[in-house]
Amino acid sequence: LRRIGVLTSGGDAPGMNASIRAVTRTALYHGLQVVGIRRGYEGLLEGDFVPLTRSSVGGILLHGGTMLRTARCPAFMRPEGINAGVSKLRENDIDALVVIGGDGSFRGAKELHDRGIHVVGVPGTIDNDMAGTDCTIGFDTACNTALECISKLRDTASSHDRMFIVEVMGRHAGFLALETGVACGAEFVLIPELPVDLEAIANKIHYAKQRGKTHSLIVLAEGVMSASELAEKLKGHCDYDPRIVVLGHLQRGGAPSCFDTVLASRLGAAAVEALIDGKRGMMVGRTKDEIVTVPLETAWTQHHPLDSDMLRLVETLSI
Ligand code: ATP
């Protein structure tokens, strides 16, 4: 192993910069050269490479986003695209690659591994929807960002006797909605994993109102339906006129939390060490505070379950 590449791919997540820094510095520490590949697999296909030095990753540790930028690259979903990626890596003498991204990015990484490229994945996505790790880089920060926004909404909701529906990210997974829902004391958390019972929501709101509760908060994962759709549906069931807030890309931004910065640093370093140890086609993760190395496909072939205790908590604590 002489020269390794690093890229960020898919949705950006706070903490990706800390990982790029850890990958770079760990590799340099072990006498390896490092090449940054800009804009994920798109930059790989275009040969958009930049040498990374000790100082080029200085000052980025606590910056949100990713200095290498990121992209979704449809061309890389086809065999010709993947083969072109393999050629680019070989032409540029890149012996191994660290891919920082979500499960889609890991599927791409597995394709490279199957074609003989040495790859290790670092799980970075605000969705937390990957198996093989208890938490992904960016999830904690996104939860904190959503919580900060929602706590502001709570102030105005209670002052004006309002119902707010807050739409958070999560097309297929409810981790972000559930975590922030518990943290902000939401009355309801609606997630893609569970069916929506409008009647039950309306009944609960009705009884809460009878008890003197004048406002309520619903945290909705985007994958269930849009906030405006839910507001429309609820209007037929209760006498609130819900206000809607879509947090959208706000959730991706901002400086990483302490937790994410440490996680990203540990996982970035572990990825390089895994490559040095001869591990191939693997991802690094954090399970019960241990850094683990498991096959890349764990991320999407296994199931990362939602904590059912958390679901019960929403119910119990919002009476
Ligand atoms: P996030 O969950 O934060 O959106 P992600 O990594 O899952 O991150 P995707 O858009 O699913 O984001 O994937 C990122 C990129 O990875 C895609 O644009 C594509 O270039 C590549 N990719 C995804 N799936 C595959 C696949 N099956 N084969 C090859 N490449 C893939």
Topology:
Elements: E1 3-8, H1 16-29, E2 33-37, H2 40-46, E3 49-52, H3 79-91, E4 96-101, H4 103-114, E5 118-123, H5 139-159, E6 163-168, H6 175-184, E7 188-190, H7 198-210, E8 216-221, H8 227-235, E9 243-246, H9 258-276, E10 282-287, E11 290-295, H10 298-301, H11 308-317
Parallel strand pairs: 1-2, 1-4, 4-5, 5-10, 6-8, 6-9, 7-8
Antiparallel strand pairs: 2-3, 10-11
Helix pairs in contact: 1-9, 2-3, 5-6, 6-11
Adenosine-5'-triphosphate binds next to helix 4.
Task: Describe this protein's structure.
The structure is a single chain. The protein has 319 residues and is α/β, with parallel strands linked by helices. The protein is elongated, with a radius of gyration of 22 Å. Helix 1 (16-29) runs parallel beside helix 9 (258-276). The chain has a seven-stranded mixed beta sheet, sandwiched between helices. A four-stranded parallel beta sheet has the order 7-8-6-9, with helices on both faces. 41% of the residues lie in helices and 18% in strands. The mean pLDDT is 94. The protein has helices spanning 16-29, 40-46, 79-91, 103-114, 139-159, 175-184, 198-210, 227-235, 258-276, 298-301, 308-317, and strands at residues 3-8, 33-37, 49-52, 96-101, 118-123, 163-168, 188-190, 216-221, 243-246, 282-287, 290-295. Residues 9-11, 41, 72-73, 76-77, 101-105, 107-108, 111, 125, 127 line the site of adenosine-5'-triphosphate (ATP). Residues 9-11, 41, 72-73, 76-77, 101-105, 107-108, 111, 125, 127 line the site of adenosine-5'-triphosphate.
